[in-house]
Design goal:
Helix 1 crosses helix 6, helix 3 packs antiparallel against helix 4 and helix 5 packs across helix 6. With 144 residues, the chain is an all-alpha fold. About 8% of the residues have low confidence. The chain has a single domain, classed as DnaJ domain (Helix Hairpins). The protein is elongated. The chain contains six helices and no strands. InterPro entries: DnaJ_domain, DnaJ_domain_CS, J_dom_sf.
């Protein structure tokens, strides 16, 4: 791994995590300070899947819920039609994020912003950091 010692990699990880936590904290404070915005439900809760769900589980849950809440199925019950439209939009938004690995990586890190679609570079960086951290943990377990 580029000739780095486990201790230098762990030191880098520690520094990175401090920067990342500070960035997340700033984003949280910023979002809390914005008035009038209701808290959004977890995309995982919307689809009824666990955080470690596979893409197949996510697709399966999406298909089931999309069929159940599709607005066309609720035209005979106008009183529930607006609720069905709202739930269907939530289901689609959750699926669009969780089925896209880049968006999901940012979402899981607490950094996904549905308003900002220009996250490709940062998402790649985050995915690489998560991969390196996972690999280093495995190597540290082997050495220990």
């Amino acid at each position: 791994m580029l000739g780095l010692t486990p201790s230098s990699v762990l030191s880098f990880q520690h520094s990175f995590l401090n920067i990342w936590l500070f960035f997340c904290w700033e984003k949280k404070v910023e979002s809390v300070m914005m008035e009038g915005e209701p808290a959004l439900p977890s995309y995982y809760n919307v689809l009824g899947v666990k955080v470690d769900a596979s893409i197949q589980d996510i697709k399966r849950a999406y298909r089931k819920l999309a069929m159940q809440w599709h607005p066309d199925r609720w035209t005979r019950t106008p009183s529930l039609l607006s609720e069905a439209k709202h739930k269907f939009q939530q289901i689609q938004e959750a699926y669009s994020v969780l089925s896209d690995q880049r968006k999901r990586t940012l979402y899981d890190a607490g950094l996904y912003d549905p308003e900002d679609e220009e996250d490709e570079g940062f998402s790649d960086f985050m995915a690489e950091m998560i991969s390196l951290m996972s690999q280093t943990r495995k190597e540290a377990l082997i050495v220990a």
